[in-house]
Predict the structure.
Amino acid sequence: MDHTHDHGHDHTHGHDHGHDHGHDHHHHDHDHQVVPDDIALRVKALESVLVEKEMVDAAALDEIVDAFENRIGPRNGAQVVARAWVDPGFRERLLADGTSAIGEFGYLGGQGEHMKVVANTSKVHNLLVCTLCSCYPWPTLGLPPVWYKSAAYRARAVIEPREVLREFGLEVPEDVEVRVWDSTAEIRYLVLPERPAGTEDMSEEELATLVTRDSMVGVATVAPPSGDGS
Ligand code: FE
């Protein structure tokens, strides 16, 4: 992969990738302005007012962000993954046209208009990154975690993905190819993790509870159900 982008400054603000501004946008050709855009400014202003008026406190806001990052957000993607595990027809549609198949669940919209789903196999492990900023499939995964937006992750996921995965606690065997997918303003990716062993008797709904955000970004695999199993 060719990564010639300028990483000299930080793009971790919540910018919009220009879909609504009507101008042409090519791969990562969007403005990386340093000041937050309108929406970010409005959110900050609103937050200040609400905190000032004691309508919410900062901890409550952190809790909401945590929910969208870790709990509510990724549950959508988890349902998509579980469906692909139990329904071969859906899996085929999902890999052929992610946008359309995810659309069957209604999980499209902002930051998820064009989805490509990449499947992990015994031979391939997929990893998502946005080398330039923080492009992330919001409708299926919620808000991106802080580490995803960090300069270190953005650079190192491409340069030394196996080392990065090791730091996440995932040792990818040498005979498994690691593919790194650089998200863009045009396309957002979702990893379809492998279904773990010992889940043959689980329902689609139960399977969805096993699927973590990290497994759909590719920094983890899906662990078998905890406990003794059956
Ligand atoms: Fe980006």
In short: The first strand starts at residue 115 and ends at 119. Residues 82 and 208 are 5 Å apart (CA to CA). The chain has ten helices and four strands. The pocket of fe (iii) ion is lined by residues 130, 132-135 (CB under 6 Å).
